[in-house]
Amino acid sequence: MGQPGIMEKLEILADAAKYDASCASSGTAKRNSSGGKGIGSTEGMGICHAYAPDGRCISLLKVLLTNHCIFDCHYCINRKSSNVRRARFTPQEVADLTLTFYRRNYIEGLFLSSGIIKSSNHTMEQMVETARILREDHDFRGYIHLKTIPEADPDLVHQAGLYADRVSINVELPTDAGLTRLAPDKNARQIEGAMGGMKMAIRQARDEKKRFKHAPRFAPAGQSTQMIVGADAATDADIVGRASRLYDGFRLRRVYYSAFSPIPDASAVLPLKRPPLVREHRLYQSDWLMRFYGFEAQEVMQATEADGNLPLDIDPKLAWALKFRERFPVDVNRSSREMLLRVPGLGVKAVNQIIAARRHRTLRLEDVAKLTVSVAKVRAFIVTADWRPTLLTDRADLRTLLAPKSEQLELFAA
Which NCBIfam families does this UniProt record tie to the protein (predicted)? Predict the structure, then answer.
C-alpha cells in the first residue's frame, strides 16, 4: 500500500486530534499584519471561536503531527497496541496546511499535538520545527498552541514557548493511581516538574518584558492542561481538588475536562460506557465557580453527593445553596458581593449591576427579574424591598421545584 496523500493524512490526523479539548485561543498578545509585514492576526477579527454541539472550540486547525506512538496508554486511541490507520505529517506539510487554510479564511491559527515517535525529544523537535517554519520563514502572526511533551528535554519545551502563544502539558488523569494504572509510560512527578518549569519560564519572560522592551515573548497566553473524566474511579471531588491544586501551584490559565470516550479494541481495564456528557459540563461549571465566583475548592466539594460526584440534575451552585440554606435568603440591597455571587441564578454581570443600581435606589423583585434569566430560581434565595421568601427557602421539595424540567424529544419532530 502506498503512502497516503495530504488530504488522507489530514482526515486521519484531524480526526485523531478530536479527543483533546484544550483548544481555546484566548489570552494571547495582540499581533496583526496590517502594516504590510507577515501573515495572520490574533486581534479584532482574528481568532473566530466556533463551537461544536458538545461545547468544544473548533476554531483552530486542530491536528496531530502523527498518530504513531511508542506509548501504550490504555485510554488513548493512538496507543501503540491500537489497530487504527496511521499517518504522519512532516513539519513543512503542517505549516503549508496552516497557511493554506488561513488564506482561505477557514482558520485563524494552529493547535498541534502528536503521538510520540522514536522518542519524546525527536517528537518535540518536529513540533518546534513546525512552529519555527511558520514564525520565521513565513512571519505567521496568527495563534499557535503547542501540546508539549513532559518527557522531552526542558530546552526543547522552552523553545516551544518562544514560538507558541499557549503551551499545554496534560496531566491526563485526576489521580496518581489512575495514571499509574492506565498510562504506565507516564510519570506524575515528571509531568508536574515540566509544568513547574514552564511556570517559571513564563514568569521570568514577563519580568524581562517589563524591564527590556525587546525581550522575546514567551507563551503570552500561558499554559493549560487537560484531565480525562470517567476513565478511572476518580470522583468529581477528586477532580475539583486536583484542579484547584493545579491552578494554585502552576498558575494555569485553564484546566480542561474531557469525558472519556470508549475506543475500538479497548483495554479490559477501561469502563464499557462513557460517562454522561453533563458530568463534564458540571465540572466546567464548578471550575467557573472557583475562577470567577470566589468559591473555594472545599466549598465546591461540599456540593457533591454521597458518592463524591456533583449532581447531574442541578448545577453546582444550586447544589451548594440547597445544602447551606441557613445562609439564605440574602438581601440584595445590603448583602456583600461575595454572598450575592453565591445566589443561584445570579451571574457575575448581574451581581455587578445590582451593586451599581442599589447605590441609587432600593431594588424590588422586578428589578432583579430584569437581570436574570429566571427569577423563579432566584427568588427562593433573596430578599428585596417588596419580596421575602418566608418558608419557600426551607421547603423540602425546593430542589424538585428548581431543577430544570426534563423534556422527552420527539423521534420524528421536524
Answer: rSAM_link_UDG
Distance CA 276, CA 293 (A): 25
**Which triple of cell numbers denotes residue 18?**
478530536
8 A C-beta contact, residue 56 and residue 62: no
Pairing of strands 223-229, 254-259: parallel
Please name the CATH architecture into which domain 6-275 falls: Alpha-Beta Barrel (3.20)
DSSP state of 4: P
Among 351, 235, 333, smallest CA distance to 292 is for: 351
- The grid cell for 356 is 451599581
- Of 166, 59, 164, 161, whose CA–CA distance to 108 is shortest? 59
Q: Cβ atoms within 10 A of the Cβ of 380, count?
A: 23
**Interatomic CA distance for residues 305 and 400, integer angstroms:** 16
- Alpha-carbon distance of 64 to 114, in angstroms, equals 5
* Rounded-to-integer distance, Cα 184 and Cα 270, Å: 14
Running DSSP on this structure, what letter comes out for residue 133? Answer: I
Q: How many CB atoms lie within 10 A of CB 342?
A: 23
Distance, in Å, from the CA atom of 33 to the CA atom of 21, rounded to the nearest integer, reads 29
Q: Residues with Cβ < 8 Å from 221, sequence gap 6 or more? A: 25, 26, 27, 28, 29, 145, 165, 166, 253
- Whether 163 and 191 have beta carbons less than 8 Å apart is answered as no
Average pLDDT on 89-109 reads 92
Query: Residue 185 class from Cβ within 10 Å (0-12 exposed, 13-18 middle, 19+ buried)?
Result: middle
Nearest CA to 268 among 72, 75, 70, 67?
Answer: 75
Domain boundaries, the chain: 6-275, 324-402
pLDDT tens digits for range 323-359: 999 999 999 999 999 999 999 999 999 999 999 999 9
152 Cβ contact list (under 8 Å, min separation 6): 120, 121, 123, 124
Pairing of strands 143-147, 61-64: unpaired
What pTM was computed for the model?
Answer: 0.87
In three-state secondary structure terms, 384 is strand
In tens, the pLDDT along 200-216 reads 999 999 999 899 988 99
Alpha helices for 294-388 (secondary structure H): 297-302, 316-323, 337-340, 348-357, 365-369, 375-378
